[in-house]
């Protein structure tokens, strides 16, 4: 390999091996997660039955003999959208977490850090409580825009609008200083959290619904949710992947990145909006699921290094796989919130890695 | 409490939710409350007289139209009140899925649970292959679950009675749905008769300002909400209910002291034996109330039937009337 001649080779030598191992490993895990996620649950379905039903219903191949119609409904209409929903949400959150950690150069950054979660939570809570306060709205609750529920739409809008507000406040003279962005996000989040708390207090029976939304759940994901959120997350991923150079440069800090020719303010704005779109789309269909967006990028920096060419796709695949598995765990544990599982399993595992790896402090460039 | 850290608040609210839920282990299904209702069910021998006209289109309490092609043979009930209505219509054997809170009548214990810890297992509902699903309104069955089941093509009737009249209507609705119209009419007539007997017994008597304690959690006092079913039951039972906020159903201690109850009914004592007239009197500020000073703090062990809008709601009403007017209403 003539490394000295080719300008900026994609990956070479040991790096290529590492990329293959990391992506292959994450991909294999995702495959296992998909098979287990569709096969296991209240009703266990053998893998060959799963394949037969999927081939018949989705591709029109063969006959779906041997499986009862209710099992078919469970696989095709309940589990498949749920598992794919977990993939979309996991991938979207992990990518957004990777991006926020890079542009804020802060290891504590997660997809929710500058207000997405607070805004989406307020939107969803309003969507849940409003029909109770204004009974006229409850009658129209079944019908909704594009068939998507008011909760999903308001959550998405809340997340995007909050970040737009935060950016508007934090921006000064074309610059978007990370510290200002973080603090503005914190303050706006606090304000919106007060609104959520107030609505929760007044919500009566709907408290359980709000609570379950805040803890995150993939139980209600349907094909329509996927058809909207999936393309958003995928499109954002493609655009983000194309901007891997900017992400790598931003790791150096705003000053050095600008010296190397990056329009730092504009690029950070662009990346923030992209990551927010992805996060809001994910949160709209699943509620606020924690930990995936924080931990997955860190895990992969330990395993694969800080280059976003590998980090972004690997985050997407690993985030997808882990959330499918976490949701499976949540279902098998009797329908507990998936956010509980991600934290319960994710946190000890992360601590274990922290203890083992002495490089850990350098997972984020200082 | 910092707003940025809602976890403490959330934990508290979760505890509250679990505190509000009836605890099956200590549920007060005393024989006194179970006996009269055992006779409520229509006689099992009474077969449907005339075959109802299926396909049948019904409108449920959520305003949804549901069409049943044939008389349901496999019913899933997502709330204990629905289960009790189905069983009171001599159709217990049609149930193929219920909740883990279900405890009456005793024979339902054997039926598969499709709702555990207040979570509807949609996969289990589908796997039960029901031809009728009976959900509960007001988010007791989450709206998202009802939507999901309806989208899967399952006929879902949502029941949300907010008064005795609406309980009668729901009994009739289920009766119509499962082709047990005559049994439903008989059951409603019997319930009406007992309710009228209570109303007559307390007619013209003093109506004590009555505070029904649903629960007290971390200083927040929960009672009958303004305009709620529970408040209307207390009225029918001959009391003047002291009500809390419509939605949160809570009341501030200052407002409670100002309302000055003459009678305090401890519904939460049904589940927590540490809640007694003595412990209530020891709470700061409570001794300012007439009820506490005069010793009119009464433990109620029938909270389950008072708060479950099925056929046994009449048992609950009678229990309330006995507690409010012990001399006028006999057991």
Description:
- The complex is a heterodimer of chains A (366) and B (331).
- Chain A is mostly helical and 366 residues long.
- Chain A has one domain: ABC transporter involved in vitamin B12 uptake, BtuC (Orthogonal Bundle).
- In chain A, 73% of the residues lie in helices and 0% in strands.
- In chain A, α4 runs parallel beside α12 (264-286).
- By secondary structure, chain B is an alpha/beta fold.
- Chain B has 2 domains: 43-195, 3-Layer(aba) Sandwich (Rossmann fold), CATH 3.40.50; 204-324, Nitrogenase molybdenum iron protein domain (Rossmann fold, 3-Layer(aba) Sandwich).
- Helices cover 37% and strands 16% of the residues of chain B.
- In chain B, α6 (164-177) packs antiparallel against α7.
- Chain B is globular, with a radius of gyration of 21 Å.
- Chain B starts with 6 loop residues before the first helix and ends in a 7-residue tail after the last helix.
- The chains are: A mainly alpha (366), B alpha/beta (331).
- Chain A binds chain B through residues 41-43, 68-71, 73-74, 77-79, 132-133, 139, 141-142, 149, 151, 186, 189-191, 193-194, 196-197, 200-209, 211-212, 214, 219-220, 222, 331, 334-336, and chain B through 2-4, 6, 9-10, 13-14, 17, 63-64, 116-124, 126-129, 138-140, 142-145, 147-148, 151-152, 225, 245-249.
The helix fraction of chain A, in percent, is: over 70%
Per CATH, the architecture of the largest domain in chain B is 3-Layer(aba) Sandwich
- Most strands sheet of chain B: 6 strands, mixed
CATH topology of chain A: the name is ABC transporter involved in vitamin B12 uptake, BtuC
Query: What string gives the helices and strands of chain B in order?
Result: HHEEEHEEEHEHEHHEEEHEEHEHHEHH
Low-confidence stretches of chain A: 1-7, 139-147
- Count of structural domains of chain B: 2
Q: Mean of residue pLDDT of chain A?
A: 85
Summed up, the helix count of chain A is: 15
CATH domain fold name of the largest domain in chain B: Rossmann fold
For this structure, what is the CATH class of the largest domain in chain B?
A: Alpha Beta
Please count the beta strands of chain B (DSSP E, at least 2 residues each).
15
Total of DSSP H or I helical runs spanning 4+ residues of chain B: 13
């Amino acid at each position: 390999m003539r490394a000295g001649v080719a300008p900026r080779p994609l990956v070479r030598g040991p790096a290529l091996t590492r990329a293959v191992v990391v992506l292959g490993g994450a991909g294999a895990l995702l495959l296992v997660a998909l098979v287990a996620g569709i096969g296991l649950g209240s009703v266990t379905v053998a893998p060959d039955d799963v394949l037969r039903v999927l081939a018949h219903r989705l591709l029109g191949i063969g006959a779906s003999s041997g499986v009862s119609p209710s099992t078919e409904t469970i696989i095709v209409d309940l589990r498949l959208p749920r598992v794919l929903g977990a993939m979309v949400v996991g991938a979207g959150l992990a990518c957004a977490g990777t991006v926020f950690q890079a542009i804020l150069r802060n290891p504590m950054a997660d997809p929710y850090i500058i207000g997405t979660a607070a805004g989406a939570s307020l939107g969803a809570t309003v969507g849940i409580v409003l029909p109770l306060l204004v009974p006229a709205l409850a009658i129209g609750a079944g019908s909704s825009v594009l068939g998507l529920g008011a909760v999903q739409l308001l959550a998405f809008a809340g997340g995007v609008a909050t970040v737009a507000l935060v950016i508007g406040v934090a921006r000064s003279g074309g610059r978007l200083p990370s510290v200002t962005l973080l603090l503005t996000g914190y303050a706006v989040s606090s304000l919106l959290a007060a609104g959520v708390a107030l609505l929760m207090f007044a919500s009566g029976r709907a408290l359980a619904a709000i609570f379950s939304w805040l803890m995150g759940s993939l139980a209600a994901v349907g094909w329509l949710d996927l058809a909207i959120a999936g393309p958003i997350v995928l499109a954002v991923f493609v655009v983000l992947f194309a901007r891997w150079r900017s992400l790598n440069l931003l790791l150096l800090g705003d000053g050095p990145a600008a010296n190397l020719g990056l329009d730092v303010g504009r690029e950070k704005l662009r990346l923030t909006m992209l990551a927010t779109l992805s996060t809001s789309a994910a949160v709209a269909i699943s509620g606020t699921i924690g930990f995936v967006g924080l931990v997955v990028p860190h895990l992969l920096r330990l395993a694969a290094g800080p280059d976003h060419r590998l980090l972004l796709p690997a985050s997407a695949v690993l985030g997808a796989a882990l959330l499918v598995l976490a949701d499976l765990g949540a279902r098998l544990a009797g329908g507990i919130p998936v956010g509980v599982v991600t934290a319960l399993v994710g946190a000890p595992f992360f601590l274990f890695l922290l203890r083992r790896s002495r490089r850990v402090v350098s997972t984020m460039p200082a | 409490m910092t707003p940025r850290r809602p976890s403490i608040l959330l934990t508290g609210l979760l505890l509250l939710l679990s505190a509000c839920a009836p605890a099956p282990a200590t549920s007060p299904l005393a024989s006194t409350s179970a006996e009269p209702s055992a006779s409520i069910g229509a006689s099992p021998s009474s077969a449907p007289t005339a075959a109802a006209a299926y396909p049948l289109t019904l409108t449920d309490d959520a305003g949804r139209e549901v069409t049943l092609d044939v008389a349901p043979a496999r019913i899933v009930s997502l709330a204990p009140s629905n289960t009790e209505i189905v069983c009171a219509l001599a159709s217990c054997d049609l149930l193929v899925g219920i909740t883990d809170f279900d405890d009456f009548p005793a024979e339902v214990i054997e039926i598969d649970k499709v709702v555990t810890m207040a979570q509807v297992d949609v996969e289990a509902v589908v796997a039960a292959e029901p031809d009728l699903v009976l959900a509960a309104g007001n988010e007791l069955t989450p709206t998202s679950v009802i939507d999901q089941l309806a989208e899967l093509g399952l006929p879902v009737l949502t029941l949300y009675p907010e008064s005795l009249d609406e309980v009668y209507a729901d009994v009739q609705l289920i009766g119509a749905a499962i082709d047990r119209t005559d049994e439903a009419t008989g059951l409603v007539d019997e319930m009406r008769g007992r309710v009228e007997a209570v109303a007559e017994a307390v007619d013209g008597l003093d109506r004590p300002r009555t505070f029904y304690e649903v629960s007290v959690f971390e200083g927040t006092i929960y009672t009958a909400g303004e305009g709620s079913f529970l408040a209307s039951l207390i009225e029918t039972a001959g009391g003047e209910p002291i009500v809390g906020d419509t939605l949160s159903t809570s009341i501030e201690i200052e407002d409670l002291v100002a309302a000055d109850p003459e009678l305090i009914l401890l519904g939460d004592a049904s589940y927590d034996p540490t809640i007694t007239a003595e412990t209530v009197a020891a709470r700061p500020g409570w001794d300012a109330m007439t009820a506490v000073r005069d010793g009119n703090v009464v433990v109620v062990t029938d909270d389950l039937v008072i708060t479950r809008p099925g056929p046994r709601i009449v048992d609950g009403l009678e229990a309330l009337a006995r507690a409010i007017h012990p001399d006028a209403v006999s057991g």
